[in-house]
Amino acid sequence: MLLAKTLGSSTFRLALIAIGTFGLIVSVIFAYVYWSTVSYVRSRSDHAIMTEQANLHDAYARSGRDALVALIGQRIADKSFADHVYVLVDSASAVLAGNLAQWPAGTADQGWSEFRAAVPPRSAADALVRGRAETLPNGDRLLVGLDIGDLDGFTTQIRAAGIAVVVLILVLAAVASIGVTRRTVGRIESINATSRAIMLSGLDQRIPLHGSHDEWDRVAENLNQMLDRIQTLMGEVKQASDNIAHDLRTPLTRMRGRLEKAYHCPRNGESDAALIGDTIADLDTVLAMFASITRISEIETRARKDAFRTVNLVEIAGEVVELYDAAAERDTTRLDLTGDPEVPVTGDRDLLFDAIANVVDNAIKHGRAGGKVTVTCRNGEGGAVISVADDGPGIAADQHDHVFKRFYRLEQSRYTPGNGLGLSLVAAVASLHGARIELQDNAPGLLFRLCFPASTGS
């Protein structure tokens, strides 16, 4: 099954193309080496033949046929010329001198040729001879050659070695490509199998790692992290859905109860007006909840970056403090604004106002009665920073990552007005502006910090 998928994979087809291309290149290289080697060796033998032929021709030119015959005899007797071939024939093709019994058949009277002949002392077998013939002025024909049997064997060995190397390379490349492709297909099939298991049984499955820390393990790690993120988001969606259902149940139940009671009672102007007013208030609560969800979703889709401008954070914070000053006085809480006189950031003024307002509202609402809330704006080395500090009960460290989830409410906050969406909006605004949220213990109370990157400053 895996072998069939391996042989049918696009990776294997690409590997075959690469092998073919590589084999062609190697073959061309070996062919060039073979041609260069043979050409070099033949040029050396041709040079030796031409030199010897020139020596014989000079002897003939100086002293005639008898001197040429004598020199050929000397060459044949000299062992250093044992690989040379000589034949001198007259116009009737009768042999006058040389170590060949006759003029080689098929050999021209002029120019180069190759032939096989029995050359003493190796007359038992025909040797491959390369020779050059010429016709002398008196009509005699002279052939000077060289036994190139060794060259022929050498070129044959080079050719055989080249073919063997090319075949070996192709075989090894094919085996390697099948192995690599099989491994690749195996890892892909592992991912596919996990994907099918996830589709059938849920998000609990994870792609197995081989521990090789290669690119496939990195892909598997990234996919597993993506699955973890998806599972987390799905859990948050389920939690948000449960919280929405829980938060909607109370106002809807109250509205139904009032309407049912009014339905069974005689009409009364004052009670009907009170019923309508209470029902409208509950509907406003429900509509406000959905408006907050829609607003958070809009911010998270980054649909409002067109409204980014350079704004003064101190001015926005001052407006928030002025807005909540009356609420703070009602709770006997002191609300102060401190820090630098001007802290510029690049962002959406309305969204920043909403985010700061939500944090200040939480600090007043969940802080200590008669306590203190301080809003501070400063220009830090890394960028602008706004902090809101209170001296209330604070938030446990293990709850810091949860309070920004939608509809998440601490146990001590369940009986105070709210729907658990305020800090979710703050987190969305911070993400849109590239800001970092920090929650720290204020001993007592909570210190909220919103740190903007330096690039957002003017």
Automatic annotation (TrEMBL):
Record localization: Membrane
SMART domains listed in its UniProt record: HAMP, HATPase_c
Catalytic activity of the protein: ATP + protein L-histidine = ADP + protein N-phospho-L-histidine
HAMP domain span: 182-235
Listed GO CC annotations: plasma membrane
InterPro entries in the cross-refs: HAMP_dom, HATPase_C_sf, HATPase_dom, His_kinase_dom, HisK_dim/P_dom, HisK_dim/P_sf, Sig_transdc_His_kin-like_C, TCS_sensor_his_kinase
One GO MF term: phosphorelay sensor kinase activity
EC number: 2.7.13.3
Alphabetic keyword roster: Kinase, Membrane, Phosphoprotein, Transferase, Transmembrane, Transmembrane helix, Two-component regulatory system
Transmembrane annotation, as ranges: 12-35, 160-180
Signal sequence residues: none
Domain Histidine kinase: start-end pairs: 243-456
Domain of life, source organism: Bacteria
PANTHER family named in the record: HISTIDINE KINASE (PTHR45436:SF8), SENSOR HISTIDINE KINASE YKOH (PTHR45436)
UniProt protein name: histidine kinase
Species in which this protein is naturally found: Bradyrhizobium macuxiense
